[in-house]
Design goal:
The complex is a heterodimer of chains A (273) and B (305).
Chain A: H1 5-22, H2 24-52, H3 57-60, E1 63-64, E2 68-69, H4 70-73, H5 79-99, H6 105-110, H7 112-117, H8 122-154, H9 161-191, H10 195-219, H11 235-239, H12 251-270
Antiparallel strand pairs in A: 1-2
Helix pairs in contact in A: 1-2, 1-8, 2-5, 2-8, 5-8, 5-9, 8-9, 8-12, 9-10, 9-12
Chain B: E1 3-14, E2 17-28, E3 33-36, H1 43-51, E4 58-63, E5 66-67, E6 77-80, H2 92-102, H3 107-120, H4 136-147, E7 154-158, H5 166-179, E8 184-188, H6 192-198, E9 201-206, E10 209-215, E11 222-227, H7 236-239, E12 245-252, E13 255-260, H8 268-279, E14 283-288, H9 292-297
Parallel strand pairs in B: 3-8, 3-9, 6-7, 7-8
Antiparallel strand pairs in B: 1-2, 1-4, 4-5, 9-10, 11-13, 11-14, 12-13
Classes of the chains: A mainly alpha (273), B alpha/beta (305).
Chain lengths: 273, 305
């Protein structure tokens, strides 16, 4: 009487997903996300998209702040969606670090993990939790994407296949960008005993690694290409491109996520619980 | 006899401290087995190794013919880990159903099993409550309930009655006695009275090794008499004249240990009860053989190593 591995993963990810809607902590997450995106949509996306809808803007379109190419943003079916794309690429990795920090450590410190590990393998548990976090983040991202589309319709956009497919590409690409961050938190959660410590170490890793590479690159320019291997390295390039143009930049986050997950599984198998 | 647990040369260190040292152990199908020992003797570590929560540094561990921690043990091995808590944000029944589903049960079967184990630990009325709303004792009973999901062949219980009120501790003992016909329990506890009542074999861990193994068999030739009052003292010379009595020892203020010739005085216990009745001495308990405490902490126990 054994549950197939895929059923275990699905059940575990469902449990994480239910945590979002059935617990007070989950509703706090939803409320915080809702308030943040309400402020962003109302006070940033709405006025900026109205400005971008002006045809005259095309003539003066150029780089903003040195790294956002407004000309690329104007190629989206609607400016609301292009601005959502920019914001989601910047904010979602941060949300992934914050929300998925307790994947393993919270249950380990409480002893709940011991109840699960009597029934399933550690690898199933870790992968199930990882998938559950993706499901949660995917749900939150989808809700905010729907809010952005609603704003677009409210500002006069017509329902079109082009708009819906752009929204779908947007969701898929942002989710793929989140993979290494969620996997990194999986690793931090295996190594450390509290969510807070996991977030702190993740921030340290994500900020110290580029700094260390910067110092190394000063003395040995040959290490410069390593910058391209850091989590989120592809995000600046993605900001100035359209998601349906090329899947190539997404090989890096997928590869990073697989590597981090393999490391998490290796560490988890060897750690006492 | 089927071997449920087989450990050979098991060692585990935490830093420089050796918690288990070259421990050899076999547990067979049968009556509950007790694991006793002082704090830090290695009881919880041994149970954690058997459950696969921690890896031993050296040695071999097999549980139900599989390596400890193997997914093959799902549903066959149940355990009450020390201090393991459920998620406080979810309801009892919901979490038990998840565990049952992960064990491989269908949705309907998982509901049925959840109801069964909640009834066993008297938590049916709280099935819909969140774990955060439960008292410490109720949480302990819930943790015991999960160990019984799916009627496993082997159940490891670490301090099962610690923190339980006397009523529920008794109910749990009754439950273990009832279920031990179908599954083997290994119980780690400091409560010798409880273990004496429940277990057929007692293993004493000391400095990471099994130092003693005591088989709880009713020993003929020794009776323990617990009296109600101290006014029996003047009657002791009379008691010493009872036919068949070999020696009389005062264990405590109200407890006597009587050794008798079991071959010549087969009905010595009947004689003793009649004598107590005639002398008007009230007694609380008459039991056969030395107490577990005496067996463990006085001479007479059989060392295994």
């Amino acid at each position: 009487m054994h549950l197939p591995a895929w059923s275990q993963l699905w059940l575990l990810s469902q449990i994480e997903w239910q945590r979002l809607f059935l617990t007070r902590r989950g509703w706090l997450t939803i409320t915080a996300s809702f308030l943040l995106w309400f402020v962003l949509l109302r006070y940033l996306v709405m006025p900026l998209s109205q400005w971008m809808l002006d045809p005259a803007i095309m003539e003066g379109a150029e780089m903003v702040a040195g790294w956002v190419d407004v000309r690329q943003l104007l190629l989206w079916p609607r400016p609301e969606l292009s601005l959502f794309w920019l914001l989601a690429l910047v904010l979602s990795p941060m949300a992934a670090v914050l929300f998925s920090a307790g994947q393993i450590c919270r249950d380990r410190s409480r002893g709940t993990l011991r109840l699960y590990c009597l029934r399933i393998s550690r690898s199933s548990l870790l992968l199930g939790r990882f998938l559950g976090q993706l499901l949660v983040q995917g749900t939150l991202l989808a809700l905010t994407l729907v809010a952005s589309l609603a704003l677009a319709f409210w500002q006069g956009a017509a329902l079109s296949l082009e708009l819906l497919s752009a929204a779908l590409f947007c969701w898929v690409f942002v989710m793929l960008c989140l993979l290494p961050f969620t996997a990194l938190m999986s690793l931090m959660s295996v190594w450390l005993n509290s969510s807070r410590a996991a977030v702190s170490l993740a921030i340290l890793v994500l900020s110290v690694l580029p700094a260390v590479l910067g110092v190394l690159a000063y003395y040995w320019p040959g290490v410069l290409p390593l910058f391209g291997w850091l989590p989120g390295a592809q995000i600046p390039a993605l900001m100035n491109s359209l998601p349906w143009q090329s899947w190539a930049p997404l090989a890096l986050p997928v590869g990073q996520a697989l590597l981090l997950l393999a490391l998490s599984l290796y560490s988890f198998e060897r750690r006492g619980i | 006899m089927t071997v449920l647990v087989d450990c050979q040369g098991l060692s585990k260190h935490f830093g420089h401290k050796a918690v288990l040292q070259q421990l050899d152990l076999q547990i067979h199908v049968g009556a509950p087995v007790a694991l006793v020992g002082a704090n830090g003797a290695g009881k919880t570590t041994l149970l954690s190794v058997l459950c696969g929560y921690i890896q031993p540094d050296h040695g071999r561990v097999e549980v139900l013919g599989h390596q400890a921690g193997s997914p093959e043990l799902s549903g066959r091995l149940g355990a009450l880990p020390q201090d393991a808590q459920f998620d406080p944000d979810f309801g009892l029944a919901r979490q038990l159903q998840w565990l049952a589903r992960l064990q491989g049960m269908s949705v309907a079967k998982s509901r049925q099993e959840t109801e069964r184990v909640l009834a066993l630990v008297d938590l049916t009325a709280e099935a819909g409550s969140k774990v955060a709303q439960l008292s410490h004792g109720m949480r302990k009973r819930l943790a015991i309930a999960q160990a019984l999901l799916g009627e496993p062949e082997l159940v490891l219980l670490d301090e099962p009655t610690a923190g339980l009120d006397p009523l529920h501790a008794k109910a749990l003992r009754d439950c273990i006695q009832r279920l031990s016909a179908h599954c083997t329990f290994v119980i780690s506890s400091h409560n010798l009275f409880e273990l004496e009542q429940l277990c057929g074999t007692v293993l004493m861990l000391e400095q990471g090794r099994i130092q003693q193994q005591v088989a709880q068999v009713s020993q003929s030739g020794v009776l323990r008499l617990q009296l109600c009052q101290e006014n029996y003292q003047p009657l002791l010379p009379l008691l010493e004249q009872l036919p068949g009595l070999v020696s009389l020892r005062k264990v405590s203020k109200l407890q006597l240990e009587l050794q008798y010739d079991a071959e010549r005085a087969v009905d010595f216990d009947v004689l003793l009860l009649q004598w107590l009745h005639q002398q008007g001495i009230d007694y609380r308990q008459l039991s056969r053989g030395p107490s577990l405490e005496q067996q463990l902490f006085q001479s007479g126990a059989r060392p295994t190593s």
